Amino acid sequence: MNAIKILAAVLTLGASVATAAPQAAGMWDTLVGVKYAKARKEVIDAGWRPDHRNAGSEWERQLQGQFPELRSCEAVSGHCTHYFVSYDGTCLKVVTEGDTVASFRVRSVAQACPKQQ
Question: What is the annotated signal peptide range for this record (predicted)?
């Protein structure tokens, strides 16, 4: 009888952990073209958290005040890279484009971790 109770508890725990897992990167294709502020909220609401690491330049670090997940921006192309991480260490890379922070739109989403510096 105790073995059945233990098995039931393990199965229940496994099911609750599975439902709490962040969505896979392919699930985010619908965010391409969406304003970054809205996309960011959806990613965070799905269980991902901003990956806090210092950006390369001073102006990029200033942008991290608003977007702590921002890692880098290319001034010429207007592309910025943001990283999120799940509870299990899986990384999500979101690339945005736009002339201003307010105009950022999602260009791509992929399951990828930042390169170690």
Answer: 1-20
pTM, entire model? 0.74
Phi, psi of 16 (to 5 degrees): -70, -35
Identity (one letter) of the amino acid at 27?
A: M
Taking residue 109's Cβ as centre, other Cβ atoms within 10 Å add up to 22
How far is CA 84 from its chain centroid?
3
CA–CA dist 26, 3 (Å, integer): 39
| pLDDT per residue as tens digits for the range 63-94 | 888 899 999 998 888 899 999 999 999 999 99
Distance CA 28, CA 64 (A): 23
Question: Backbone phi, then psi, for 98, in 5-degree steps?
Answer: 160, 160
Of 77, 66, 76, 85, residue with least CA distance to 21? 85
Q: Which helix (H) or strand (E) holds 73?
A: strand 70-74
* Local structure of residue 10 (DSSP, 8 states): H
Q: Can you tell me whether residue 58 is helix, strand or coil?
A: helix
